[in-house]
């Protein structure tokens, strides 16, 4: 049965992709003609690039709608736009959905972090009141880990029977033997020095300061730190004097460049306190790089052959694990890397996308039976 799906893809209508945008892009990119899925991908800002894959099996529809500050693009503009397009199902892939749902609507809630932050005024009303109403009307909710499923069911018990877990995949580039150089500016800054790779950006729960302290107390004056995930203007400017000249911030990286950065690192440091999924825990291991993290939230399910896990507040244990990784013999590291690459193959975007399509069809069958 051919299926026409509307995909809310505002996270592709940007200058640089972030985590949710990667999720949306991979669903579109991993659709094959034999899947019999036709897309209409919706963006909200014609002035910005729309990073849908080429070729897209369907069409792109980027439109402005007045009152976007008050979320009217989502609540009014999008439902109006669905009319006359033959769309059978809408997938709101970016945590929120409209209350008015002219067609069966699914929403992906990646995690509950936005609802736990200290929002005020219109933002608080939109997340806590408007979205509660929207979720009551949704045909189903998709999430990305058992940890997120538990958090969502606890916050909105009325969606528990409509909640499906579909884990993410990681980019195909992590399973390719192709090699690309790092951006020249980063290569020049490193100058061939050994480095640790921090993933996460500036959010407090990601703990960039923890990563810097590990480098400062590693006993290795030659060891550098590369930080990823910092948007424009978010990289810290006041760095410890002990790390002068040894902390670098990566520019926006394509997936192929990110793989190169992982593969060149002595280890990846991922000290986050909560994640709905946790891409770096899998990506590092797929790239053959040891990764240090705490088995919290969804990360408890991402402990593979190249993972060193420690309690989140036990700094001495983290430091001991780092010393162990840095002293790992090449032969032992290569053996673990081989096993880790095989382990990481379970996180396939194609497998994830196929499960999404199953949910789409199950949803339409359920609504057709009413």
How does this model look, in words?
It contains twelve helices and 13 strands. It has 370 residues and is of the alpha/beta class. The protein folds into two domains: 3-169 and 349-363, Rossmann fold; 172-344, Glycogen Phosphorylase B (Rossmann fold), CATH 3.40.50. The chain has a seven-stranded parallel β-sheet with strand order 3-2-1-4-5-6-7. Strands 10-9-8-11-12-13 form a six-stranded parallel β-sheet, sandwiched between helices. Helix 9 links the parallel strand 11 (267-270) and strand 12 (291-293). Helix 9 packs across helix 11 (330-344). The protein is globular and about 65 Å long. The mean pLDDT is 94.
Class by SSE composition: alpha/beta
Helix content: 25-40%
The low-pLDDT segments are none
Largest sheet: 7 strands, parallel
State the shape: globular
Mean pLDDT over the full residue set:
94
Q: In whole angstroms, how far apart are the ends?
A: 19 Å
Overall number of structural domains: 2
Largest sheet, spatial ordering of strands: 3-2-1-4-5-6-7
- Percent of residues in beta strands? 15-25%
- Radius of gyration, in angstroms, nearest whole number: 22 Å
Work out the helix count: 12
Q: What is the CATH homology-level superfamily of the largest domain?
A: Glycogen Phosphorylase B
CATH topology of the largest domain: Rossmann fold
Total number of strands: 13
What is the class of the largest domain in the CATH system? Alpha Beta
SSE run: EHEEHEEHHEHEHEHEEHEHEEHHH
Label the CATH architecture of the largest domain: 3-Layer(aba) Sandwich
């Amino acid at each position: 049965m051919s299926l026409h799906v509307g995909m809310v893809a505002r996270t592709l209508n940007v200058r640089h992709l972030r985590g949710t945008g990667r999720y949306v892009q991979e669903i579109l990119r991993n659709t094959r003609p034999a899947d019999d899925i036709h897309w209409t991908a919706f963006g909200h800002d014609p002035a910005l690039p729309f990073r849908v894959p080429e070729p897209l099996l369907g069409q792109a529809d980027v439109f402005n709608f007045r009152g976007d500050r008050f979320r009217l693009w989502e609540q009014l503009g999008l439902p109006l736009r669905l009319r006359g397009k033959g769309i059978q199902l809408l997938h709101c892939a970016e945590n929120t959905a409209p209350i008015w749902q002219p067609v069966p609507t699914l929403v992906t809630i990646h995690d509950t972090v936005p609802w736990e932050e200290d929002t005020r005024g219109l933002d608080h009303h939109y997340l806590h009141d408007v979205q509660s109403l929207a979720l009551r009307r949704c045909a189903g909710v998709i999430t990305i880990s058992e940890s997120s499923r538990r958090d969502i069911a606890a916050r909105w018990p009325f969606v528990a029977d409509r909640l499906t877990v579909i884990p993410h995949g990681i980019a195909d580039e992590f399973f390719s033997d192709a090699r690309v150089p790092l951006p020249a500016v980063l290569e020049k800054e490193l100058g061939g020095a050994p480095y640790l790779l921090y993933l996460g950006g500036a959010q407090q729960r990601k703990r960039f300061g923890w990563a810097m302290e590990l480098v400062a107390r590693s006993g290795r004056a030659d060891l550098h730190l590369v930080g990823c995930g910092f948007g424009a203007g978010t990289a810290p400017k006041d760095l410890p004097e002990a790390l002068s000249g040894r902390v670098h911030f990566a520019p926006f990286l394509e997936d192929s460049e990110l793989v190169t950065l992982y593969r060149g690192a002595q280890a990846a440091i991922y000290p986050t306190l909560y994640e709905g999924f946790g891409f770096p825990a899998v990506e590092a291991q797929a790239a053959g790089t040891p990764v240090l993290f705490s088995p919290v939230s969804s990360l408890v399910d991402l402990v593979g052959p190249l993972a060193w896990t420690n309690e989140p507040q036990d700094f001495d244990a983290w430091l001991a694990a780092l010393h162990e990784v840095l002293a790992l013999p090449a032969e032992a590291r290569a053996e673990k890397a081989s096993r880790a690459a095989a382990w990481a193959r379970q996180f396939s975007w194609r497998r994830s996308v196929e499960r999404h399509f199953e949910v789409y069809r199950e949803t339409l069958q359920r609504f057709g039976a009413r």
